[in-house]
Specification:
79% of the residues lie in helices and 0% in strands. The chain starts with a helix and ends in a 6-residue tail after the last helix. Helix 2 (8-29) packs antiparallel against helix 3 (35-56). The chain has helices at residues 2-6, 8-29, 35-56. It has three helices and no strands. The longest helix has 22 residues, at 8-29. By secondary structure, it is mainly alpha-helical.
Length: 62
């Protein structure tokens, strides 16, 4: 984690890649009806929520 906190551009690039991957999971999961596609969309949603949590973590009050 120290490496990512020292190199901000790498962490931003990684967050952008994870965001696009999660978005891809959600969009492709909507094209097919079934349990597998539902799980695919849920994994994408959980990924987006984790990104949102990591973004908001420094701004949380103590």
């Amino acid at each position: 984690m120290k490496f990512l906190s020292e190199n901000k551009w790498i962490s931003k690039l990684l967050a952008a890649v994870v965001f696009l991957f999660c978005l891809w999971l959600i969009i492709t999961g909507q094209k097919v009806i079934g349990i597998a596609s539902l799980l695919k969309m849920l994994v994408g949603l959980c990924g987006l929520l984790v990104l949102l949590y990591c973004y908001n973590k420094p701004y949380q009050g103590k």
